[in-house]
Amino acid sequence: MTIYVDKPLWNFRGVRHAHMVSDLSYEELHNFAIQLGFPRRAFQGDHYDIPEYLIDEAISLGATQVSPRELLSHLKGAGLRVRPKDRDV
Q1: Is the pTM of this model over 0.70?
Q2: Residue 12 pairs with which residues in a beta bridge?
């Protein structure tokens, strides 16, 4: 029952982004994303891309920052991992 964000390593439109996932359910992730102002259409199949400037806010709301490897481990462990080739996005 935790939301995880990894380190912002990916650049998009001049802003570094991290990934944000849940280890419980997509519903938990969507509800958390709403608190940060993300529309549902920003969902990337099993995660949200979160800009670096929102990471501190996510952590203040209860997210835990982990390494990219740890984030993927939590996602797989929860059975919520969707391989990129299988995403609808």
Answers
A1: yes
A2: 15
For residues 89 and 45, what is the distance between their CA atoms, to the nearest angstrom?
6
Alpha carbon 49 to its chain centroid, in Å, reads 6
CA 10 and chain centroid, separation: 13
pLDDT tens for the chain, 89 residues: list them.
699 999 999 999 999 999 999 999 999 999 999 999 999 999 999 999 999 999 999 999 999 999 999 999 999 999 888 887 776 65
The domain locations on the chain are 3-82
Beta strand pairing call for 10-12 and 15-22 = antiparallel
Block residue for tokens 């390494």 = 67
Q: State the Cα–Cα distance between residues 40 and 31, nearest whole angstrom.
A: 10
Instruction: Tell me if 50 sits within 8 A of 36, measured CB to CB.
Output: yes
